What we know:
six-stranded mixed sheet, D-Maltodextrin-Binding Protein, domain 2, 12 helices, 12 strands, alpha/beta, 2 domains, globular
Amino acid sequence: MSLVKTVATAIGATALMATSAFADGHASTNLRIQTHYAPETVSGKLAAQYVADIESMSNGEISVEMFYSSSVVKSVETFDAAATGILDCDMTGGGYQTGKNPAFQFVGDIMGGYATPYQQLSWLYSGGLEDAQALYNKYDMQLIGWWVYGQESLASSRPLPGPEALKDFKFRSPPGMETKIFEKLGAKPIVMDFTEIFTALETGIIDGADASGLANNVGLGLYDLVKHANFPGFHSMPSDHLACNKAVWDAMPEHHRTIMSVAMEALALRTALTFETKNAEAAAQLKAEGVTLWQWSEEDLQTFRDAAQATWPEFATTPEAKALVASHIAYLSQLGLVK
């Protein structure tokens, strides 16, 4: 049997395993989903709520075995693990797949573009989902939706008063376009897995880290180690996704697919609203604990946006990436967010 037929047979078997029937004939969907978030973080708790929602709305027809903290495979490997049937769904983010196709940057984290989660989500739900779906389907995956928690904050052992502070700043970066942007600003990004951040900070391998939003960073314990952050954030607003093996998705009953899709829209709104509150609470807590929060001026923010927007076309090197950049720029222009 050829390799192609072997893989196709394995994926087909995975779809059959994920979807079966109860004795009374009702459909049963059993999914294995991995997220990179720890269960005690705000995002981890929101992921757990999503699972509870779809299980409840389906009256138990959908069941989920949830794996937190990338406990099955590394964060960057989650997408392929779902595409090949080791898992069923990936609840990390498209930005981890930029090595596969740079187009994933523009469904993962466009950087220097949208200012709020609501703007970014409005692109997805006003036509962007169709643009993104073609990319996911090319890799045998189905994009179900996004949950966007807002602008990220850096964790740092050094003060971060403005762009000049980034010179020789050695920090953990996710893979992709971010490394190019920060290199333009004089920083020294180091790509490492999300799960390695705490140890790298603790041992001084890095000066700081791009991990998550302020509240999630508190949940990870990063500010127990370092005493500087920027808030509000400006550099990164990842679109965490739920993406499932397309064969598994296609084999699911339509009402199960509808439940999961609508619940993702609810998760998107809940995430944005929750972090409005949680980040403000975290900021107050950190100030009280002696952590310095740096807020950049509008001029400093524009320095970053200029570097980011200059990098978009450099990174758009495939037809899929070029199409997504064009889609974003058209929408950002409508919003008045690009010059």
